[in-house]
Design brief:
With 495 residues, the protein is α/β, with parallel strands linked by helices. 38% of the residues lie in helices and 21% in strands. It binds S-adenosyl-L-homocysteine, iron/sulfur cluster and FE3-S4 cluster.
Length: 495
């Protein structure tokens, strides 16, 4: 029996798909790279914006014909939309067999087996946080941590891995669906995290990305000892084989000096910090229920640049939030200019029914205005990204070689995708709305490629993408590359 997983959403979902695949493989399933020949199609879904959900429901709608042609075929919906819509998924897409929430991935294989055996729809989701406010313990237990032994074959690249260090979110920003679909904030024990990272290192992993919705809020209490992220980074630094560690996403108020110093001092900690600001006006930050002022955020930016040499800061922004005036929007533009982010992911506000913002405020910024503000902010950011990249011209950088460049990858495998674009995946977001300079210049490089080499990409420790020509065997190794040309999102180099 063969399965195919289609993933949208953030890096949490990418990791969950890896774990779900491991779960199915352990139960005897075989993984496919496309839908063709699959007996089971799994959708890992996202609810962060309406657009993301609409795409999933229309993709599910298109699977109706597949189900008619292949009556024994099974469809499973996992992830945040499964948790949010629960049984409604069966109403909107009646031919779905299994709905499983993010806290229940460990049950996926048995639910699929039960659906196949009995022909009845199977549902497993965590308790609704809002309906069960009075019983936080039950809510907590219903969202179980699930990160079992890692199978190297379920990762796209064996030398890179994501490791969850916390689960859920307790910040409750007024626009956001995540705290309700990902459950309460729970940190994993340092021992469990380190065991997992040692396993990964034994499998050949050299770079780990620590994941948490507010990863720097990490706090694990054991007796009278509390471990915070800085101490965890130090412990990971001591694991043989692990050369690079980064962590996403950080919440501005939890970025302590101790953590910044750890990033500066630990050889494996990379100077890349994703600290979403969301907005540049205090009035809007307050309506968003972010727990800082723009002055505090600017101060954080100053502290980061003063502490960590070569730091690259990235951010997320929401434009067109309820009541956003032109003046408030311009304050966001000013913040982008001030902070000089390496790049920003910019989103148009999308109402999420049931959350605080939708109850209190009106979604009153017209779509055309949202779009214009999105483009305006992106243009300012892109110019800053290009300026940063130009500072690399002529410099030598160390990169971890990740694989063939996108252009080469497209030649190698035409991925069959149910979605036009993977909206929320961090790297894809800017690309979907920005003309990429990668292809034309990349083609120049490719045409000049000496025989035996291909166009490869790698990443610097500050998370900049470098395209260069080299032998395919370099994939998975660290190399020194001199930058000979730059574009807003890409550096071009020579070994
Ligand atoms: N935990 C992360 C964010 C996860 S959601 C953090 O706090 O940094 C990823 C991004 O989606 C958010 O940073 C925000 O910019 C955006 N987002 C969340 N809810 C949204 C909504 N209702 N409309 C538009 N964008 C939203
Ligand atoms: Fe959502 Fe805010 Fe939590 Fe991030 S910190 S996941 S934006 S509620
Ligand atoms: Fe991530 Fe989307 Fe869920 S952003 S946490 S997959 S709602």
């Amino acid at each position: 029996m063969k399965f195919y997983i289609e993933t949208v959403g953030c890096q949490m979902n990418v990791l969950d798909s890896e774990l779900a695949a491991a779960e199915l493989i352990s139960a005897g399933w075989e993984r496919l790279d496309s839908r063709k020949g699959a007996d089971l199609i799994v959708f890992n879904t996202c609810s962060v914006r309406e657009h993301a959900e609409e795409k999933i429901y229309s993709a599910l709608g298109r699977l109706k014909t597949w189900k008619i042609e292949k009556p024994t075929g099974l469809i499973a919906v996992m992830g945040c939309m499964a948790q949010k819509d629960k049984g409604v998924v069966f109403q909107r897409a009646p031919f779905v067999d299994v709905v499983v929430g993010p806290g229940k991935i460990s049950e996926l294989a048995s639910l699929v087996a039960a659906a196949a055996k009995t022909g009845t729809q199977q549902l497993a989701i965590g308790i609704d946080r809002f309906e069960h406010r009075t019983d936080p313990k039950a809510v907590k237990e219903s969202f179980r941590l699930y990160d079992p032994i890692r199978l190297p074959q379920t990762r796209p690249r064996v030398f890179q891995a994501m490791v969850r260090i916390m689960f859920g979110c307790d910040k409750f920003c007024s626009y956001c669906v995540v705290p309700s679909v990902r459950g309460p904030e729970q940190s994993r024990s340092p021992k469990e995290i380190l065991d997992e990272i040692r396993t990964l290192a034994d499998q050949g992993c050299v770079e780990v990305t620590l994941l948490g919705q507010t990863v720097n809020s990490y706090r694990y209490r054991e007796g009278d000892k509390t471990t915070r992220l800085a101490a965890l980074l130090a412990a990971i630094d001591a694991v043989p084989g692990i050369r690079r560690v980064r962590f996403v996403s950080s919440y501005p108020t939890d970025m302590t000096d101790e953590l910044l110093q750890a990033v500066r001092d630990l050889p494996s900690a990379t100077p890349y910090l994703h600290v979403p600001a969301q907005h540049g006006a205090n009035s809007v930050l307050e309506r968003m229920r972010r727990r800082y002022t723009v002055e505090e955020y600017r101060d954080l930016v100053d502290r980061i640049y003063a502490t960590i040499p070569g730091a690259a800061i990235t951010s997320d922004f929401i434009v067109g939030f309820c009541g956003e005036t032109e003046d408030e929007f311009q304050q966001t533009v000013e913040l982008v200019r001030y902070a000089r982010f390496k790049n920003s992911f910019i989103f148009k506000y999308s109402v999420r029914p049931g959350n605080e913002a939708s109850r209190i405020y009106e979604d009153d910024v017209p779509e055309t205005v949202k779009k214009r503000r999105n483009n305006e902010l992106l243009a300012v950011q892109n110019e800053i990204s290009a300026e940063w990249n130009r500072t690399f011209l002529g410099r030598e950088v160390e990169i971890l070689v990740e694989g063939p460049s996108k252009r080469e990858a497209r030649n190698v495998a035409q991925e069959e995708s149910l979605y036009a674009e993977n909206e929320q995946t961090l790297d894809a977001t800017n690309e979907s709305e920005t003309p990429s300079n990668l292809l034309p210049v990349g083609d120049l490089l490719a045409s000049a490629a000496p025989s035996g080499t291909v166009q490869l990409t790698g990443r610097t420790e500050c998370d900049r993408i470098v395209v260069f020509n080299g032998a395919p065997e370099l994939v998975g190794t660290f190399q020194r590359v001199r930058i000979v040309e730059t574009a807003p999102f890409t550096l071009f180099g020579e070994l």
